[in-house]
Amino acid sequence: MDKILFKNILVYFSDLSSKRINFYLDSSGNVNFLDSFDISDYKEVLDGEDLVVMPLLTDVHTHMRVPGQEEKEDITSGSKAAARGGIGQIFTMPNTKPVVDNAYLVDYLVSNIDKNSSMKIYPVGAVSKNQAGEELSPLLEMKRSGAIAFSDDGRPITTNILRKALIYAKTFDGVIIDHPEDPVLSDGGLIHEGRLSRAYGIKSIPYTSEEVCVARDVALARETRSRLHLAHLSTRHSLKYIEIAKEEDLNVTSEVTVNHLIFNCENISIFDTKFKVNPPFREEEDMYELFNALKKGIIDIICTDHAPHTLEEKELDYSQAPFGTPGLETVFAALYTNFVMSNKCALEDIIKWMVVNPSKVFSIPVLELQNNSKANFFIFKKNEEFLVKPEMFFSKCKLSPFLDKKLFGFPLATFYNGKMIYKDNNFLQTVKEI
After folding, report:
1. What domains can be seen in the chain, in order of their start residue?
2. What is the rounded CA–CA span in Å between residue 96 and residue 114?
3. Is position 305 annotated as part of the catalytic site?
4. DSSP alpha helix (H) spans, 85-158
5. Out of 101, 286, 305, 424, which one is annotated catalytic?
6. What is the pLDDT of residues 15-50, one digit of tens each?
7. Which one, of 91, 95, 94, 72, lies nearest residue 82 by Cα?
8. Cα-trace Rg, the chain
């Protein structure tokens, strides 16, 4: 990499401070802060009037589909998609074929990641064998092989197994991630139970399906005093139990997807499979209250629940098409456009929700711009608008709910461990990505 000068760049840090600085990247990808400089020394110079440098985001909930479902996504395509979105660390869920429920498969996944990923990807191991909810997986063995946490995501952890997992994981400070849904109440539902489901006669998923499971999970976390993380919350009715958990200082944390902060059952095309997700998009009030819970610190993290599928699957009839949509490429731009530009939150809030809090909850490093260190950051231009098109996606699944929408703030370049792992075609013309 040729020497690149970043001149008068507004840089945000994980301590939620920001300042304009000058720095350059040397040929080894090291960051060097500058008090003075001679422009003639540099291959390319970026003047930072409208440019912003951010810490790399962490996405704690994705589906890389490895092993066994590589037609949907693989480590190479998934890591490229994450780099496009300004992300440097992701968790990949274990509901694959076969299920990642033992140390051998964690080892396989780690090896695949080491060979094919441009960034850090953490495997999540299954809580129960084959995610069947009947027998506990070898959690400690998987942790020793590299599993960051444990989940039966895609389905809830059965009550008896969840209690056993929480008790066992506490012995080695492990984190259990639950998908809060009562399958009896969901009963094969397709959309949120409400006005539209009744009007169209569509089988639906009531908010109580999530609420009763969250209440159960908090009760078990209280009993065991173990670390529990609740995935992809969708309804305001779940929040009171998490607030109680916070008040009682329980080890309970939670996340919400970016999509559930932007979409609701009234502002989407009800039969468009791009919007078919689980949990479903709920009411407008839920959307607002989930965002307010983030602001209050009740919910800790924003994630994507990046869940790619093949075009053939998503073009099936709505009742047959699988749940899930891609989200890695668009997460930051969607947040920046819908919340920062409208003054509903600040860039510091996004850093808190997608950098600082994931680091605290899962004990992982923060990746950001530091002097005399390998480059870890992404850069974007504040007022640059993009029309979201399929060709912008590196994910094998291009069917984003943001297609044909205008978003600001797409990363122009992403640096991980001193290497430029993504750059926009019109950015840094003389410099090549890896």
Report:
1. 4-53+369-423 (2.30.40.10), 56-362 (3.20.20.140)
2. 19
3. yes
4. 103-116, 139-145
5. 305
6. 999 999 999 999 899 999 999 999 888 888 898 889
7. 91
8. 21
